[in-house]
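Blinded run. Sample ID left blank on purpose so nobody reads anything into the name before looking at the predicted structure. Input follows.
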Amino acid sequence: MGGRLRFADIWLVIGTRPEAIKLSPVAAALRSGGVDPLLLVTGQHPQLDLASFGLSDFRSVELDCPGQTNPYNHARQVEERVRDQFQRHPDLLVVQGDTSSAFGAAQAAFAAGVPVAHVEAGLRTYDPRLPWPEQEFRSAIDARALLLFAPTALAAANLASERLDGAVHITGNSGIDALIETVARLPPEPLRAAGHQRILVTCLRRETWGSGLAEIGDAIAAIAEGENVRIEVVLHPNPAVARPLSERLRRLKHIALLAPMSHSDLIERMRGCDLLLSDSGGIQEEAPALGVPLLVLRDKTERPEAITSGNARLVGVKAERIIAEARALLGNPVERAAMARRNFPFGDGRSAPRMARIIEQWLTTRTRGSRAFRTR
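Blinded prediction complete.
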């Protein structure tokens, strides 16, 4: 950025850990260009430590909207709190992804006539139930945002097919920027111990709760029967959601149950394992870049690029399928090595600077011929 917009008023909405991970490079890129963005921290994920994402020295406003069981109620609460902040209108409100924080904040901006930029636009399963309600939230933001930052060509094509009014830009995913920065800070990867195959499991998505988690628990228990297998299961931060897996697995050999951990700790464990089982969207993006084979515990994914690149397989949540796919990979080192080739289908690590340049160009064009941005 050329610094011409150093007086622009840009707000970034952060409510969850994924939003903090993926917007921290954007905030840093804007700051490098002379813009001091304001962070609207909704509180959807309680006790979100901005310092752990390099965001502690940015201006911020706490909205005190902890997540709720009903995501629509949470989105309405966020919308009300953000609307209260519009005593002055920012030049641009930036939201990321598909959370109720992003949706509620975007709704407030649309109603007030504040321009919205959507980071990670265009991801589609074309099934409003998978993931629910995130697929609905993401599509609704895309429908009215003026800047649409598509991470991939496929996401951009989805947006083009919907004939939206917003300007579509293929930028890559800023989560890969964050991943590369995180890996650079980690100690060198230790040599893997011979004789043991390490599996890391995460299950966080709402649509896997209930019967889905029960099936996944049965699958993990069966896979753990192999003598040379060691499985680490990262539990959900909500004790009520974590309890079914914990009760099913806590007494079994070869299984370690782990408390929720920092992003850097999770990345360190991911790069040291032989196989990942996860329903996480972020892990679908990170696993190919780390070169770790991934079995996606979903029936549908809005990130098929990881499957196309050969780094991931969509296996659903039925125990029989998960067991068969995991055992097949663990027993076939050639096939597993093919899935372990590092690929970058979601970005090259320079997505955030691209977004910052696009924002500068867009705001410059938008204000050309009108009064310059206020001076301080």
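Unblinding after everyone has recorded impressions. The two ends are 19 Å apart (CA to CA).
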